[in-house]
Design brief:
Elements lengths: L7 E4 L5 H12 L3 E6 L2 H15 L3 E5 L5 H9 L7 E4 L15 H29 L2 E6 L12 H20 L5 E8 L6 H5 L4 H7 L8 H12 L9 E4 L15
Parallel strand pairs: 1-2, 1-4, 2-3, 4-5, 5-6, 6-7
Helix pairs in contact: 1-8, 3-4, 4-5
């Protein structure tokens, strides 16, 4: 059953990977989109493609979620009620241990994964509370459930997303606003290339000898979570490829 047709969804980080696939699958369900990201031209390409193919409305907004003022300007300019907010924008930088990591990498992860998610959650949740309706879906990570060496700050940011999700649900207790999280393990997207500053060989080695999850795999789960009946709230899902059993246990065919 399609309970999504006619709704409006904001998706951050929609220019690639999980964000793009989520936008595409929502559009296939008849959801109008407001897609954000830093690559203005890429957003335009996605808008033109989805509107031509699927007869839905797509609005684009190019800004960095790290910028609180830009987030406020974006939300202030909205002239529609938002039914779904997918806080997807996020990244990892480096795999250095705590005693050797780059402060700039830490700042980038904290400002994007935590602050950016908080800024938009703060601004959109207030509107949803007033409407007594809506759904916030945060894209977390298995790293938000299990920390690992070399991921001290990335794991910390995703543990923060878990805490933010749970606290947001409690802050909205007694309303009809739903709050959820989706927590993937290894997904083959641009994620590893960003983590390794564009080093494609290092990025490819992350997935060597195993079949990772795809962006579509996670997008399908996000759409499933959003499409539950209004009284059903899925708080979290942890998704691994079959070859992965924990943050550090990955079976590889040599």
């Amino acid at each position: 059953m399609n309970r999504l047709v006619g709704k409006t969804a904001i998706i951050t980080g929609a220019t690639a990977g999980i964000g793009f696939k989520t936008a595409e699958l929502f559009a296939e369900q008849g959801v109008d989109l407001i897609i954000t990201g830093r690559r203005k031209e890429r957003l335009k390409e996605i808008k033109n493609d989805l509107e031509d193919r699927l007869r839905i409305k797509v609005t684009t907004a190019s800004f960095d979620v790290q910028d609180a003022d830009a987030c406020r300007e974006f939300v202030d300019a909205l002239n529609v009620d938002v039914d779904i907010l997918v806080n997807n924008a996020g990244l990892s930088k480096g795999i250095d241990p705590v005693f050797a990591a780059d402060f700039k990498d830490w700042d980038t992860m904290i400002d994007t994964n935590v602050k950016g998610l908080l800024y938009l959650s703060r601004l959109i949740s207030a509107r949803m509370k007033d409407l007594n309706s809506g759904h916030i879906i945060n894209v977390g990570s298995s790293a938000g459930h299990e920390s690992y060496a070399g991921g001290v700050v990335y794991s910390a940011t995703k543990h923060a997303v878990k805490a933010i999700t749970e606290s947001t649900k409690k802050d909205l207790h007694g309303t009809n606003v739903r709050v959820s999280m989706v927590s993937p393990g290894l997904v083959e997207t641009e994620f590893s290339e960003v983590r390794f500053d564009g080093d494609k060989e290092k990025a490819a080695n992350v997935y060597k000898g195993m079949k990772p999850l795809t962006a579509r795999d996670i997008a399908e789960i996000i759409v499933f979570v959003a499409n539950r009946p209004a009284h059903v709230n899925i708080m979290d899902t942890i998704i691994y490829p079959v070859a992965q059993s924990s943050a550090t246990m990955v079976h590889r065919n040599e």
